[in-house]
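Morning, I've got a small favour to ask if you have a moment. I've been staring at a protein lately and its backbone has me curious. You're getting the sequence in one-letter code plus the fold written as tokens. I've dropped the whole record in just underneath, so have a look:
=====
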Amino acid sequence: MTQRENPNTNLIFQYLVINDDLDQKRGDVEGRSRSQLYREMADISRKSFEIYAKQIGADYLYSDQAVFTKEEYAKDTTVCLFECLRVVYDESFDKYDKVLFVDTDIVVNTTDNIFDECDGEVCGVLESDIRTENAGGYNAWDYNDKTYNDYREKYEWHGVPLIPALPPNHPSKITVMNTGVVVWTREARLRAREVFDDWKWWFFEGPQKHMSIMNDQPYLSGQFMKHDFDVQTLDQKWNDTPTHYKDPWGEKALSANFLHYTGGGNKVVMVDGYRDGKFPLLPPDDWPEAGDICHFS
């Protein structure tokens, strides 16, 4: 991030760290190299958010390195999930009023400024608020006793309260934000730096559960609740998955602002959709050759 005479006050940050053994450990996705698919996916998302950042007057930063988690990454590559905490602990981010962290499997489908939507300390979409034609919320803890008990055991061991989501949000036993899209104010980032429990304590200590409970999403959601952050919930349109609709390229699916292609197969849909010119705000011009992918850190 370079200093300019008139710097923007907000920042969009993305990262993707490709492990050297990714293909060996996790295999192909629908016959495609997982590592190459992820690189193409990330390049599409990077391009989309670079354009968006310029439109809304924000700075943009992309990283392909484990910076915040560098020391632990050498021992366990899974910890790169917590690289999103760089927005909290990297002091070079402190000059920005608001920072949007966004996953690299998301495509922008709006010119509306997400920063203008956010008045709370942290802003995002709750897992239990996401509804589509094919599925309810992503709140498995509300209908699977084992999942709920696994969350409860992990949270209780770490002193994290189980705070329910209440109306006007969809009622749920636990308030969990989808951390693929999170807007942080400067005040929230600085306070989190002071009060958050050590993420390594969460990840390496206490009950060891499924990765869906061990990762950054339950950790961050729990810290927001434990330390009484002002969490503003955003409309589903800011974090929606088109493939969860009957027609993933239909009007309903493409009415969202941020199109989130979670899961391996959905990333194939995202890459092929880009190549076929299906994203209204992202024409498939200048498609990079393999390996010709722009990264900065």
